[in-house]
Design goal:
The chain is of the alpha+beta class. Helices cover 22% and strands 40% of the residues. Strands 2-3-4-5-7-8-9-18 form an 8-stranded mixed beta barrel.
């Protein structure tokens, strides 16, 4: 790994691509109100010429759950963005989207953006605040379906949970807003805090089903939730803040009539792993696209 570049949090990684080092920015996305925690993401603002193998090599070297690779399209404010975990490309990643949008805003100013992703076109708007920039992504159309009996049984076994641990107010579903996520709600906060799952078993199940994370939640109130997201497909035990899952969960709440619309839902994630993260989810009354807002800060 090379030396630090001109921007805070920038490093250079040598990979077999173009014979040149790749400049990687490092941000924490969805940081808490105190500016702590958040989910680390890599951002490569000039990914033109990097093929899939090179992008995976960079993502593996960075070692975060996701790294975003950005290319200009020739249209102001519109970019092609691809996301890679250390193990595979992912169609969409919320926290890396927020990190990328803030990185662009820091260089070019706040305003509307459009990201062409493998999941579809994702509008993003950035805004300046006294503490920096915020970014709001709007997902592709959300949808949800009940989890199958075999899927649920296998997931509970891998999590070392039972059906009695689940909150019956929130049915087990597979929700989508760019990626698929299994949504499971527990009755009490302590059960969520004590999460200790069978990594190989959950990894194998998620590989078979195509789930990106398992979104585990506890309802503190009708619009206030705590969440944890196991992420074996990304090569990490747990994600500290998962914007894609938050968007999918917003769509789930909307489709099942579990919130009064329109709604703003607050999700606190990462607390149990020492990286408190805050995600704000706006659920509209007349659209199945969900907006997720958060901050991002360079990792020094």
């Amino acid at each position: 790994m090379g030396g630090r570049g001109k921007y805070r949090g920038m490093t250079e990684i040598d990979v077999p691509a173009r014979g040149l080092p790749v400049a990687v920015l490092r941000y924490a996305a969805f940081t808490s109100e105190q500016g702590r925690g958040g989910n680390p993401a890599g951002v490569v603002l000039d990914a033109a010429g990097l093929d899939g193998a090179a992008r995976l090599a960079v993502a593996a070297e960075v070692g975060y759950s996701e790294t975003a690779f950005v290319e200009e399209t020739g249209t102001p404010g519109r970019y092609r963005v691809r996301y890679c975990s250390p193990q595979a490309e992912v169609a969409f990643c919320g926290h890396a989207t927020i990190a990328t949008a803030v990185a662009i805003a820091e260089r070019h100013g706040a305003g509307p953006l459009e990201f062409e992703t493998a999941a579809g076109l994702v509008p993003v708007r950035t805004a300046a605040t006294g503490a920096g920039f915020t970014a709001t992504l709007t997902s592709v159309a959300s949808r949800t379906r009940p989890a199958g009996a075999e899927e649920l049984h296998a997931a509970l076994a891998a999590l070392r949970w039972t059906a009695q641990d689940l909150d019956p107010r929130y049915p087990a579903h597979v929700a989508f807003a760019g990626n698929e996520h299994l949504v499971l709600a527990v009755r009490d906060r302590d059960r969520l805090a004590a999460l200790d799952y069978d990594y190989p078993a959950l990894d194998a199940l998620m590989s078979r089903t195509g789930w990106t994370t398992v979104h585990l939640v506890w309802a503190e109130g009708p619009t206030s939730f705590h969440a944890r997201d196991p992420f074996p497909p990304g090569g990490v035990v747990e994600d500290a803040a998962t914007g894609a899952a938050a968007a999918a969960f917003g769509g789930y709440l909307r489709a099942l009539g579990l919130v009064e619309l329109p709604a703003r839902v607050a999700i606190r994630q990462g607390e149990d792993m020492g990286r408190p993260s805050d995600l704000l989810v706006d659920v509209p009354a007349d659209d199945d696209r969900i907006s997720v807002t958060g901050t991002a800060a360079p990792i020094r």
